Amino acid sequence: MVELTLSEKRIKGLTAFQIKVIALVIMTLDHIGAFAFEIPIVAQYEGYLRRIGRLAAPLFLFLLVQSIRHTRNKPKFILRLYLAGMCVELFVTVMNFLIGETFSYFTPENIIFTFFYIALYAVLFERIIDAWKKKDVQILVSSALFLMLSLIPTLLSLFDVFHHVCVAISPNPSTRTIFLINGLWNSLLPSFNSIDYGIGLVILGLIMYFAKTKGKQCAAFLIFCLVCFVGSIVAPGKLFELQSFGFFMTFFNRFQCQMVFALPIMLLYNGEPGRKCKWFFYGYYPLHRELIYLIGELFAG
Question: pTM higher than 0.70, yes or no?
């Protein structure tokens, strides 16, 4: 029997591009169930579509972690995520402004900004740890300062600064004005309250990033899912009061725990990037959501 070479062995499994395509299809099915449930045939299978959709976010997260680790220019990568997230948010804002009154206002949370925070904190924590070991005070202080500055949007949201800005601009703002200001605000200053999956996915992303190897990353993901599953059992009883926090509401439920079924696909990753088509995915994300939503609204009308 002929023994395969190392390069031939690495061909087995799935490339990053192939996993991304799988995640994209799953995400689309999830969004059909979430935004077009007024369509009769979609309503019939809505539950199945949403359950399948639980696999999309962890798969994209897994690929993000690989991208942060292997990118040659991490600051540029972080900036690209921020600009992509901003463009998605501005697109939604413009669509709301143009057709929001005709249909209804559509403001889904933005997972690209979630990925932006994961990449930002991964790099900052890595720099802080490295500077601490090398006793480099300058890098340690500058990184800690950036870390604190990144918390400003969330602190502003906690103190409801957005509401005061709306009142200052217009004492009796219309719905259209509120959504416009809100969209512009979230485009520039995304907070943990406006990003998809909130701080929970950010924590998971950081854990997986510092796990380093694929095996450890998959193990960390499995443990996270098990913790969430236990939490989904305990939370309704003894820890019911924790349900008021977004993290527990999002992850401590059996519906979200089904994201664990993304694990086999992660394990098939062969370390190869595959085809390059990053801008397609950035563009597809806002366009397909808006299109699915509008089709759903036409059926609802």
Answer: yes
